């Protein structure tokens, strides 16, 4: 796999990771796109990306895929091989790069042509580029050009609250810390990312667990991530991922999303 250079410094508040992937699954199939606290932005190479929500009949097939925050797995269909560039955009990145709050894309599957029309030609340019370094450089330049937008940022108190919730802080404590009532905080957080504070905190814990799975015993993962026990972790994992942790490890490990702390080749943060 090509190890991309670090995400440019100007993009790091908005791009949590950027990975060039080239995966041979050996046969056609479906893999799970797991929920997280970031928006998934994918630019496939070779063929359109076919993705839908798990259990639904509808599929979105396009040369780019952009999905908002969600609390159910996506089903990504493939013919045995997948290549492309996958980025994780932060909630702040939605405003800075897409020009809209992440809340407007919550639970949605769309593409660049609809979300950012001025970049409608980027997927074709990435597809036609001859090398991975050229493709990654194209994407970086395109995203940097979007930073010239006159986009308002995330309200400071909400950004602080989202960061605290990601790390497991309780909603009441976060509301007190930023000086809002719990109801006011919930309204602002939902408008910004499309989820309640409890829902966003839940994704933060799930995301932390995902980074540890395969590297630590399940009981230890549960304890470190704030689940009451291993059974609690398994119930939450099954609800959010559509399968047990052990099933996911068996089916998907190793894969582009399965990176441990410090293993992300696309960022030096």
From TrEMBL:
PROSITE patterns, per database record: HTH_ARAC_FAMILY_2
**Keywords in UniProt for this one?**
DNA-binding, Transcription, Transcription regulation
UniProt domain HTH araC/xylS-type: residue ranges:
155-251
UniProt keyword Secreted present = no
One protein family per Pfam: HTH_18
Origin, by domain of life? Bacteria
Q: Which GO terms describe its molecular function?
A: DNA-binding transcription factor activity; sequence-specific DNA binding
Q: Which InterPro entries match?
A: AraC_XylS_family_regulators, Homeodomain-like_sf, HTH_AraC
Recorded protein name is AraC-like DNA-binding protein
Name the coiled-coil region(s): none
SMART domains hit by this protein = HTH_ARAC
Which Gene3D superfamilies did the record assign?
A: Homeodomain-like (1.10.10.60)
